[in-house]
Each structure stands twice: as structure tokens, then as C-alpha cells.
Write a structure and sequence with these properties.
By secondary structure, the chain is an alpha+beta fold. The chain folds into two domains: 2-59, no CATH class; 61-136, no CATH class. It contains two helices and eleven strands. It has helices at residues 25-36, 41-50, and strands spanning 2-5, 11-18, 52-59, 61-66, 69-74, 78-84, 102-103, 106-107, 109-120, 125-129, 133-136. A hairpin with a 3-residue loop joins strand 5 and strand 6. The radius of gyration is 17 Å and the shape is globular.
């Protein structure tokens, strides 16, 4: 996702949708509608904060949890990895007693991003960061 601020202060966003090359056009349109906020709900609220959808791109998404490390790859445009933080008792540190303590229904695990790269060449956008806060939790889309 790319966020840009215009001179008028209105933000725009670009959404990358997963694996649409294997989906019917109606499915691709439904996903674009959901992530642009047209179908309301939590994604609609996010859309209100980010502004108008400027476009979509087809790209495979790979998300891998390997014990303490999670990696994410979206085509050749986005890649990142993070490690959960272990507590003094040897257990994964969890976020509790906070409005953000549950991520899409499960307890959020606290971590640190080892790297994040977003390169959207067609939009002239490149971002590379390390050592930032990270969170992970279990989720499942149904319906």
C-alpha cells in the first residue's frame, strides 16, 4: 500500500491484491471493493483515513511464520521480516490491557521488524526501514 499526500492535504493509496491472476474478474472486483472501503466495515473505516484508491496491481503474497520469525513478500514490490520479542519467562511477549491488544480477534504478539522494503517503481515510491516495532496475530477471512 502506498500513501501520498497531495498539496490539498488529501491522501491517496495504492492497494496490491493477492494472486488475482488465478481469480475470476468478479472476485478481483470484490476484493478491490473491500480494500477500497466501498463495502464498509473496518476496511471502510481505514479507507476514510487513507483517501481515494488510485489503483491495484496483481501480485502473489507469501506469508511465512517460522517459530519466532515472520516474513512477508508481495511480488517483487514488498518484502519484510520481523521477530517476536521473548519475555524473561521465555514466552512470547503479548500486548495486553490496550485497545490494540487483540489483532483481528487474537492476542497480539509484540516484535521488532528486522527489515521492511516497499518499492513501487511505477509510483516513484521507495521505502526501506529496519528496527521498527512490529506486531503479529492470527487472522482468517470468512464469508
Amino acid at each position: 500500500m502506498q500513501i501520498q499526500r497531495s498539496k490539498e492535504g488529501v491522501s491517496t493509496k495504492r492497494t496490491i491484491l493477492d494472486g488475482l491472476e488465478h481469480r475470476r474478474e468478479e472476485q478481483a472486483e470484490a476484493l478491490a471493493g473491500a480494500f477500497s472501503g466501498k463495502l464498509e466495515g473496518p476496511l471502510g473505516e481505514l479507507s476514510e483515513m487513507l483517501g481515494d484508491l488510485q489503483g491495484t496491481a496483481k501480485a502473489p503474497i507469501e506469508l511465512v511464520n517460522n517459530d519466532r520469525t515472520t516474513t512477508l513478500t508481495v511480488g517483487s514490490s514488498i518484502s519484510g521480516s520481523a521477530q517476536v520479542i521473548m519475555g524473561s519467562d521465555g514466552q512470547v511477549t503479548e500486548l495486553a490491557h490496550s485497545p490494540n491488544s487483540e489483532v483481528l480477534g487474537s492476542r497480539a504478539e509484540v516484535g521488532k521488524a528486522t527489515d521492511l522494503r516497499v518499492g513501487l517503481g511505477d509510483a516513484n515510491f521507495d521505502l526501506q526501514v529496519t528496527g521498527r516495532a512490529a506486531m503479529r496475530g492470527r487472522f482468517r477471512y470468512t464469508g
